[in-house]
Alpha-galactosidase
Amino acid sequence: MKNQIISLFVLALCLSIGTVEAQSKAIDGTLLAPTPPMGWMTWNYFADNINEKDIREMADAMVSSGMLKAGYNHVFIDDGWQGGRDNKNNIIADPVKFPSGIKALADYVHSKGLKLGIYSDAAPLTCAGYTASLNFEEQDAKTFASWDVDYLKYDYCGAPDDMEVAKSRYKKMADALRKSGRDISFGICEWGDRKPWLWAGQVGGQLWRTTADVRDKWKSLTPVKKQSELHGTGAGILDIVDYSQDHASYAGPGHWNDMDMLVVGLYGKKGPSGDLGGVGCTDTEYQSQMSIWSILNSPLAATNDVRKMNAETKRILLNEEVIAINQDALGKQAVCKIKNDLWSVFVRPLANGDFAIAILNRSEATQNSKINFAELGLNGNFEIRDLWEHKVIAKGKKWNGKVKSHETKMFRLKKI
Ligand code: GLA
């Protein structure tokens, strides 16, 4: 009897894993989002003041700055593009902001080698009050497909709190996208409030937000007891790390924990990420965001003005060795092996047998780190490559060194 129960449990587990993967199948049978999606998103820089001219300029800059070459291959249009519905109830773009229409914009970004993302919401209106898709799921999915859109971020403002309703509204849109005749990856954005890591893959999402919106700051000034309180206090980089790190087992190729946009290079620019205490971060803190988002397999959506990036922002966003960890084919999210007042230390295995580790100094002062790799479960001798210094720094079973306040060291360990 006991064995039968165990077999049934294993079967149920296999079926549920199978379901997640089946839900992420592209039309040709390959996987949608086999690695975390990357790109540039309009929201933090422009809010809803978007238009086709600025987006084309950003697309051009994605190419000329090296962002596309480094892997940032989407332009994600966020809220504010909508102009209501026509007399056949087809959703339309705002004719003043997008006089050439979204299809022309998609053609333009595709001609640059980029993909186009768009945005809607599982209610009548979006978070910023624009026309959304509830009860028009199939019609809107067909419209997005006819525009050659590649990705949909689907928000949850104006929708009921209940988890079952959320599941069914997201499933409805995921099914509509699958029926649309085009591969459109699906980003679920209900901010982690209904534990989407438990169900978002099964209902057809390729990624799901884990927390409230990121603000351009290190951490919430008021301590919170649960992640949903971050909606009120504002989620900083460290808060999102702390509230996303436990969901590693739910992520993998085709289904990712989305820690929200990168704020790298925003420097406290006013806008949505400047609200709720988003006064800006130091480059050291931005380097930490890039490191932890990469080791935890989060999608990487830059939101700074890529038309004018300073040298530090480029150094951080275009670090191809760090991006390679994020995009590693194994798709295994790092787990947090050490967490205390001073440190968060993350470890993940990589497809070629190497390991990546990230050592984050959470404290307000420089600290001396003494890490024996064995305490992270990594036995043997390793060659240690510093992915921010771009060189091999040592060989052995441990690493001792200084880590500045809020800095993250990121190493690739190769067994020797
Ligand atoms: C919500 C989302 C944000 C952004 C805005 C747009 O707050 O979480 O990422 O899309 O809506 O209104």
User: Anything to note?
Assistant: Confidence is low (pLDDT under 50) at residues 13-18.
